[in-house]
Amino acid sequence: MQSSNFSEETFLQPEEYPAWHPAAQGIAQDLPHENGVDAATSAPATPYTGKNLPNEPNGQQQRPASNESVSGTNRYTKRRNPNHKKGFRRPPAKYAATSPFAPAIGAASAGEPDVQQKRPRSTPLFREGSALNEPVSDEAMLLQGVTPLPEPGQGRRRAKEPESEFSRAKNVVLNQLAASPKSRSMLYKKLVEKEISEPVIEDVLARCEAVGLVNDAEFADVYVRTRMNVKKLSRSAIRRELKQKGVEGETAEIALEQRTDDDERNDAHELVRKKLRPSMDLADRQEKDKIMRRLVAMLARKGYPSGLAFSVVKQEIETYIEENGIENSSSGSYYE
């Protein structure tokens, strides 16, 4: 491919270029030589010596970014259009004066200079003669499904009306019954702690008893069944707890009829049987007496009579010794 020869006369003078051309702004061009080689490449290259150059840190030449032109503007920079504004946009001037929202957007009405001024609050929001300035009654707003605005000085939310004493007492009773069953005496004490007056307490509890929310008989029946199945308590222990809950007399005795003597004895055997462990040294007399005292005390805490507790513990220990082949060392024991 034969290279063409160029000379400086071939190019135009700076004043002959258009105003937008870099040559017209005084920026020099790299003209090719006669042999077709650019002037930028014709300069002798600096040999690499492995040392930092005097004006270049870390031996790296500071070059302008490739995406920046000579004028210093980034070609990837997105120019912002000043006509595009965020938020509410003003309508054109020819439509602003005739818009019903002219005062709201700050546009001048017909015959007024287009100067944005702050209007006093007494001035209507919309232009004069607009139907939007007419007041709307609260009844009309409610019919349209719109909540009326609060009166000036009251805020967006009206003050909450104080709760009556009866409503407060009713809420206390319902919350207590939702957590767990309660007797009438327990609810009475709770209402007294909440500083509810005596007439209101009697009225609320009477209403709850009338609808079946408060029933001492049902409460006692459920309580006895729960304590004998879960905790294996005796009748005397359950009777004592019912009295603390405010249920006693005939109501408590009727509920305790479901707890029989056979049930108590069977539960006592089961409690002692669960406490016996292979690690216990029942061959030693002193250790055996200590274990027997602990088991009898455990049954006594659950309300079992002492005679029943002694007989149950002795029978279970003897059965355990026979089943496991332990030497019986009962001689000399005060339980004999």
Automatic annotation (TrEMBL):
- Extent of Polar residues compositional bias: 1-10, 55-75
What positions does the domain RecX first three-helical occupy? 169-208
- Where would you find this protein in the cell? Cytoplasm
Which keywords does the record carry?
A: Cytoplasm
Record field: compositional bias (Basic residues) = 76-92
Q: Which residues form the RecX second three-helical domain?
A: 215-256
| Full protein name | Regulatory protein RecX
